[in-house]
Amino acid sequence: MSSIPPELSYTAEHEWVSAPDDQGVVTVGITDHAQQELGDVVYVDLPDAGTSVAAGETFGEVESTKSVSDLYMPVEGEIVETNDAVADEPGSLNEDPYGAGWLVKIRPASADALNHLLDAEGYAAEIA
pTM for this structure? Predict the structure, then answer.
């Protein structure tokens, strides 16, 4: 059974999004379900900070021993930070997808950018 923290928001493409911090920045990663489906992650390709992205746009990829999967941006905005540590240690996506395995931090283009995302219950239904 996959872990689905209730305080996060989710996409049907298996990305999670944190609530905005006091600067309005959200953190994005892949879900526990996604990392389990991928298997052992061996490579992560992420964009540079300062990159503007649209919701639904591909913003990188994750390569595992089983497959290569695109990463889809859950919200429109600007990437303010990329997790370089996950690029150096891609296995952290398998070990801690909601912690050390985060991917990027984004400043959403609007305050309501997260309104279309799934809550934990909705995501659980999506993967059931």
Answer: 0.95
